[in-house]
Amino acid sequence: MLMRTDPFRDLDRLAQQMMGPGTWSKPSAMPMDAYREADQYVVAFDLPGVSADAIDIDVERNMLTVKAERRPVTKADDVQMELSERPLGVFSRQIVLADTLDTEHIQADYDAGVLTLRIPIAERAKPRKISIGVGSGHREISG
Question: Which of 39, 62, 101, 136 has the highest Cβ tally under 10 A?
Answer without folding.
Answer: 101
